[in-house]
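Bit of a strange request maybe. I'm writing a small parser for structure token strings and I need a real example to test against, not something I typed by hand. Could someone generate the tokens for this chain?
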Amino acid sequence: MNRTIVITVIVLSSFCVFSQNTINDFLAEIEKNNSKLVALRSSLKAQKLENRTGNYLQNPEVEFHYLWGNPASMGNRTDISIKQSFDFPSAYRYKNQISDIKDLQMDIEYNRQYRDLMFKARIICLELIYINAVIVEHNSRLEHAESIANSEKRKYDNGESNVLEYNKTQLNLLNVKNSLETLTIEKESMMAELAGLNGGKSIKIDNDDFPVVELPLDFDQWYSMAETSNPVLNWVKKEIELNQRQEKYQRAMSLPKIEAGYMSEKVVGEQFQGVMIGMTIPLWENKNTVKHAKENIIAYQDIEADTKLQFYSHLSTLHRKALSLQSSLNKYRNELKLYSNSELLHKALSGGEISIIEYMFEVSIYYESIEKLMELELELNKTVAELNQYAIW
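Reply from user aminoacidic:
Good idea to test on real output. This should exercise your parser:
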């Protein structure tokens, strides 16, 4: 029983930096092998090339006319023309700037999906660490339950115990074994899910200690860093910038287009050739495009303000929750050590002061407290992982 207490205290009270490094190592493997991220990276290249289409000059136009004269004595007529259309020069500059912003948005969107996937993988890793800790605890309980069951069987065989107490120890042993089997199945399921995130390659996580939990003391200063790393906010900022460039581009497209080229006309005994210059006056085609871009800017500015407000409120809530969980965890751990009766119960059972049924009832309260402590630790780590989702990696 003393050994059980020592193991439990070690498992629950230790915060190990090595565990955090190991989780990051697992995440690095997933980043390299995850099929979704591989597909996203390939798609990113194609989408960036697509963003560059339409940024160049329009195709030149070439015309050739061969006309037969009537009567035939007039001879034939040959016309050749080559012309090129040009948008207003500043339009090409804005086109390239718009493409640059779209490229950055592609990177931001990839970053968002990457962070979401890494967060999901991190949560699974934390849950596996929790299950491993619970398995360690249950293995100790199994060892203790077997010891109690064997001792009670000897007493029962010698007529020193009744069948009720004997059956109780056997049921207790059965329950511990069943709990271990359930935990093992749950662990295998999570390992399979983690392997799915790792491109089908299995990842073995045997750690049973949680990472070091570090909470920011100055929340507002920490938040400013988290805000700059939030891909949703960054995407909205780029969308505002994109619409600002779109407004300038549409203004440029509202200016006249120029056509220039060469033309030749040849008839019997005569030939005319020279340059040609034309102009397209955009009176109706681009109507309301500038207004539309302006309204989009206002809309996305409102979206940005709301997104910032919601993001700050969400992280502030998570920060308060994490601080409360950390305080509760430390208090619960200290009081559990202070008020634990496990050793006294073991002595009382050995001395015959309490029955095996009374002992199992009392020790079940201690076991329940241990499980609540581990659940608190898991909840704290998951809350911190969500809190740091946009502030790390």
